[in-house]
Fold this protein.
Amino acid sequence: MTPQVKLRLLASGDTTLQGYLGAPPAGFRWFDFQLPQGQLAFGTCVRVKIISANQLYGHNGRQPLTGPRFQIDVLDPSAERAREVAAAIIAFLGTIDLASNAQFTSPVTTPRQFPVFILNQRPGMEVQTEPPVFVESLDIRAYNKE
Amino acid sequence: MYQGLSQDIAAVMREAIASGIFVSLCTIQQPSGAFSPSGQPDGNYSDVIGLVNLPCMMAPESGIESKTPEQILAYDVRHVLLDGLYRGIQTGWRAVIDGEDFDVLSVDIDSQSQMTRMQVRIVTI
């Protein structure tokens, strides 16, 4: 399972994020890289892309552990709403571990650690629409086991 | 005796209106002027007095999509002719035409002050 799939799977199971982004699976407005046309009309949307992925090495070679860096953009016509959802995502990120199988096997168990790091948060805007769309971007690193 | 062109010029809009070609209705709205606690416009608009349900006709001018890796923006530009002279419409206001909200890009009045034309746009993401 790729880190993009893992992240979306866990996010869609978070009830707080469901309240903001819609009901999974088809209605959960968390998108891989590109925001599909028309989705913003249904409410706040999130688009996610990996902006770098460093491989980790030991003496015996490449390890099955990577450190992908994600950019998570929250889009909404309301700046405060975008910030609110970004805060909810930060809270959610403190509950996940992509480097263990705890949350991806049956039964799901609580991980013992949560190796996700918030590196930066910055605001942005898509200016061509009227009203403009506010973007709150999170820059995170989430260690992932391949 | 030459009587000038003023009657002929005025007749143009009268005939256009009588022909029934102003098939749409346009309401001009202005922003409320109120702001959210963080300083963002509250997104509310109110009708401008005297500019409500103006007969008009609207025609498409251009349509284009701008694709970037992150999103697709669709631009729909229309040309609008109002049924008379309406001064004071400002860019930064919006035009609600047949129930659809458009951003007013430009407003101009013809050289004979008989009609008002607007270029309006809607951009969707």
User: Anything to note?
Assistant: The beta strands of chain A are 30-32, 45-58, 61-76, 116-126, 133-142, 144-145. Helices of chain A lie at 3-12, 15-21, 79-93.
